């Protein structure tokens, strides 16, 4: 009897001719989180991927694999050769581990065989395994409709027996859908936005704007902490860190107070676009959410879009705040996000920001600034931090 971990793939299965490309990326991403867990082997068999030889670190491996996009279920299995005697013994073994009580428990067996030459059909496998397991435990009974335990038997080149099915996030493997540059603030929304785009296969790096020394070093560390948590899902990440203070001072000096937020947001976009074009990112990603704050009206988003050519992906645009918070708790960025450190935008926050900015007015105000110079100057302050 060998212990292996099986993982089932979600949407990848629908990929037809491209499937191998997606599977190879997925396996590469799996290897990244397993690399320090000793000797192991990964192989594919009939639509699932199996990891052999990693049982000592089973729970650690499972928890890390849950964060790999493209996986739907993860199961620790016992693997045996396909003789019925072995399947029965493996089933007994795995039930024994699961049944930690003498109280009555209901179960059923669900079987599949991918090799149609196997002498028994699936219902017959279930019947025989079920009968055997029943005979070995006094407190078991069968319930085919709502069992407390479902014992699964997959007969392939080997037979796999398992009970646990840990849910992963599905999605597509990171790296199969281009590269995106995430505008990462210290707030609740942007880490969730990065997570959701990575879940669709986009490779993510981040860009962060600060106003040092008006904002503290501790505020910077908070952003790096967030990047570190997001990178558990996305893989190694670069954070481009840029000082916006000079630009904010210039806007503050030359433009109407109520346009501060929208104009500085347009500068962020221009700077991010420059970084993206130079370093081959195909889109920017933000945590903007329609109607959440004054700078996130449909008018503001329009004026923001007009500052650059590159697409801006806004995966949270139609979500409710409670759902975003729920995601941020789920991905474990919430506790860090709510730490009270000042953000660069809070430094020059206008009392009444415009909610219906007009592009002509904003361009008029910006004509008092040397936009190109300010953008280049800010880029010169750029630091790159590598997150693993
Ligand atoms: P978040 O919780 O992500 O900070 P928010 O609700 O506070 O979002 P805003 O402050 O209006 O909303 O920011 C909207 C989006 O603009 C953010 O989600 C982020 O993508 C980007 N952004 C804002 N501030 C910064 C910053 N200092 N550095 C990088 N990106 C930023
Ligand atoms: Mg914010």
Account of the 3D structure:
Strands 1, 2, 3, 4, 5, 6, 7, 8 and 9 form a 9-stranded mixed sheet that branches. This protein has a 6-stranded mixed sheet with strand order 14-13-10-11-12-15, with helices on both faces. The protein has 2 domains: 2-167, VC0802-like (2-Layer Sandwich), CATH 3.30.2130.30; 179-387, Rossmann fold (3-Layer(aba) Sandwich), CATH 3.40.50.620. Helix 8 crosses helix 14. The protein has helices spanning 19-34, 58-65, 84-98, 122-136, 189-199, 217-234, 245-254, 260-278, 298-305, 321-330, 334-337, 344-347, 359-366, 371-380; strands spanning 2-9, 41-45, 48-52, 71-80, 105-113, 140-142, 149-155, 159-162, 166-167, 179-183, 203-210, 237-243, 283-285, 312-313, 383-387. The longest helix has 19 residues, at 260-278. The protein is elongated. By secondary structure, the protein is of the alpha/beta class. The structure holds adenosine-5'-triphosphate and magnesium ion. The site of magnesium ion has 3 residues, from loops.
Question: What's the layout of helices and strands?
Answer:
Blueprint: E1 2-9, H1 19-34, E2 41-45, E3 48-52, H2 58-65, E4 71-80, H3 84-98, E5 105-113, H4 122-136, E6 140-142, E7 149-155, E8 159-162, E9 166-167, E10 179-183, H5 189-199, E11 203-210, H6 217-234, E12 237-243, H7 245-254, H8 260-278, E13 283-285, H9 298-305, E14 312-313, H10 321-330, H11 334-337, H12 344-347, H13 359-366, H14 371-380, E15 383-387
Parallel strand pairs: 5-6, 5-7, 10-11, 10-13, 11-12, 13-14
Antiparallel strand pairs: 1-3, 1-4, 2-3, 4-8, 4-9, 7-8, 12-15
Helix pairs in contact: 3-4, 5-6, 7-8, 8-9, 8-14
Adenosine-5'-triphosphate binds at residues 183-185, 187-190, 208-209, 268, 286-288, 292-293, 295-296, 343-345.
């Amino acid at each position: 009897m060998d212990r292996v971990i099986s993982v089932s793939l979600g949407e990848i299965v629908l990929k037809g001719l491209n499937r191998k490309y997606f599977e190879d990326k997925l396996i590469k991403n799996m290897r990244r989180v397993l690399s320090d867990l000793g000797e192991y082997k990964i192989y594919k068999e009939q639509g699932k991927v199996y990891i052999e030889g990693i049982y000592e670190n089973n729970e650690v491996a499972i928890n890390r694999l849950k964060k790999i996009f493209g996986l739907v279920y993860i199961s620790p299995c016992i693997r045996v050769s396909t003789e019925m005697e072995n399947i029965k013994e493996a089933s007994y073994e795995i039930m024994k581990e699961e049944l930690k009580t003498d109280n009555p428990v209901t179960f059923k067996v669900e079987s599949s065989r991918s090799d149609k030459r196997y002498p028994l059909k699936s219902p017959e496998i279930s019947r025989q395994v079920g009968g055997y397991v029943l005979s070995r435990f006094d407190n078991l009974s069968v319930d085919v409709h709502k069992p407390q335990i479902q014992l699964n038997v997959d007969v392939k080149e080997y037979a796999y027996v398992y009970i646990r099915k840990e849910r992963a996030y599905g999605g597509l493997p990171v790296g199969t859908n281009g590269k995106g540059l995430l505008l990462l603030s210290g707030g609740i929304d942007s880490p969730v936005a990065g997570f959701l785009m990575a879940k669709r296969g986009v490779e993510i790096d981040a860009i962060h704007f600060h106003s040092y020394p008006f904002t503290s070093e501790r505020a910077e560390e908070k952003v790096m902490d967030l990047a570190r948590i997001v990178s558990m899902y996305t893989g190694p990440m670069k954070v481009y860190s840029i000082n916006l203070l000079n630009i904010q001072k210039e806007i503050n000096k030359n433009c109407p107070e109520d346009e501060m937020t929208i104009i500085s947001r347009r500068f962020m976009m221009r700077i991010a676009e420059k970084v993206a074009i130079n370093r081959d990112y195909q889109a920017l990603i933000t945590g903007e959410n329609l109607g959440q704050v004054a700078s996130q009206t449909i008018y503001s988003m329009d004026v923001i879009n007009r500052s650059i050519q590159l697409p801006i992906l806004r995966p949270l645009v139609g979500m409710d705040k409670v759902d975003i918070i729920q995601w941020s708790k789920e991905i474990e960025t919430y506790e860090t996000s709510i730490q009270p450190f000042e953000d660069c935008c809070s430094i020059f926050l206008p009392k009444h920001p415009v909610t219906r900015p007009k592009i002509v007015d904003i361009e008029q105000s910006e004509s008092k600034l040397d936009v190109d110079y300010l953008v280049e100057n800010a880029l010169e302050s750029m630091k790159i931090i590598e997150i693993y």
